[in-house]
Specification:
The structure is a homodimer of 202-residue chains. Chain A has 202 residues and is α+β, with helices and mostly antiparallel strands. The first copy, chain A, has a single domain, classed as NADH Oxidase (3-Layer(aba) Sandwich). Chain A contains 7 helices and 5 strands; from the N terminus they run ααβααβαβαβαβ. Chain A has a 4-stranded antiparallel β-sheet, with helices on both faces. In chain A, α2 packs across α5. Chains A and B meet through α1, α2, β1, α3 and α5 of A and α1, α2, β1, α3 and α5 of B.
Chain lengths: 202, 202
Amino acid sequence: MDKPAPADHPIHELIRRRWSPRAFADRPVAPELLRSLFEAARWAASSYNEQPWRYIVAPREDQQTYGKLLDCLVPGNQRWARHAPVLALSVARLRFTHNDRPNRHAWHDVGAASALLALEATARGLAIHQMAGFEAERARQAFGIPQEFDPVAAIALGYPGDPQALPEDLRERELAPRQRRPLAETVFGGRWGEPLALLHLD
Amino acid sequence: MDKPAPADHPIHELIRRRWSPRAFADRPVAPELLRSLFEAARWAASSYNEQPWRYIVAPREDQQTYGKLLDCLVPGNQRWARHAPVLALSVARLRFTHNDRPNRHAWHDVGAASALLALEATARGLAIHQMAGFEAERARQAFGIPQEFDPVAAIALGYPGDPQALPEDLRERELAPRQRRPLAETVFGGRWGEPLALLHLD
C-alpha cells in the first residue's frame, strides 16, 4: 500500500511517499539493502560530527536477538511489529567523545539519522515504523547498553504489507488519512506564534 | 560546490549529496521554495504525531528579525552565517499537547523534521547548515519563546557559494574530506559493540 502525504506545497517524492505502516509483508530484507539503509543513516549531520547514533539490529533469522527485542516492546506494538522481518533499536550516546561533556543534540541527531534511514527504505520499496512504546530499561539490560547511552526508539522494518491482514482497529488506523498541523502554526517570523508573512501561510 | 558523501554502500542521491556548507551565494531564496522546504519538514514522523517542531524563519529582507537571530549566534558562526540569505531557528515543544506529559522524543523528532528540510533543500539546489553554537536563552528572550518550548538549533539556509570567498581557516574546513565512523562501529547485533554478523561489516 502507498500512502503519499497530501502536501500543501510541492515536496520531493521520497519525502512525500515515506510513511509508517503497521502491516508488513512476509518477505525477508536482503543484507545488501540493510547495509544501504544504515549507510544512509551514517551520513546524517551531527553536532561536532559526533554521530551519536547506534543501532541494534535484529533480522528475524537471528531468532534470539529478534525475540529479545520484541520482548522490549509494549504489548500494543508487539501485536503488529512481530510480523516485521527486521526489528531494530536506535540508541544515543549522551556525551561528546572528544571532551566527555553533555551533547545537547544527541537525541536530535539520532532523529536525523533515523529520518534518513526511513527515506532510504522508501527509496527501496521498504518502510520503517518507529515506536516510542518500548521498555528502555529492559532494552538496556537485554543488550548490555552502557549507561552513557540512552535507548531511543524501537524500529520495525520491512516491505509494507496488506492492511487487510491487520486486526480491525489497526486496519482503521492504517487506512486513515494522514494529517499534520498547518504550516502557519509551525513557521513563525519575528513574533512567536505569528506566521512568517513572506510565506503567505495564513 | 558539490561534496557528495564517499559512501561505502549505495545510498540515494539526495542523501549522498546533502551536506552543510559555510559558503553561501549572494542570492535570495524564493518564497515558494521556502514553503516547500518547511512543507517537507512538516511531513516528518513524530511520536503520537505530536509534531513538536516549530521554526522561526528570518529571510534577510526582514532585517530586524534577521539581525536578532544573527545576534544569537556565537561569533564563530556569525563570521560565515551572516552571508546566508535566510537564518532560522528550530524549536521543540517539550510536552505532549494531548496530555501535557513530557515528550521524550521532542528533540528527536525535531531532528527528523530538520533532516527532511535539509533533503528538500538539496533537491532544490539549496543547502542548510545547522548550528549548535547559539545562545538559547538569548533566543528565547529575543523571540518570546514560551517556557514549554526549547530553542534547539540555529540554521543557515541558501544556495551554496564559492569556498574561495571564505577566510582561510573556514575554507580549509569547507574543502576537507567528509568523514564518518565505520558502520561496523555503529550497527550491532545481539551483543553491544559487536557488528551485526549478517551485514559482514567488519
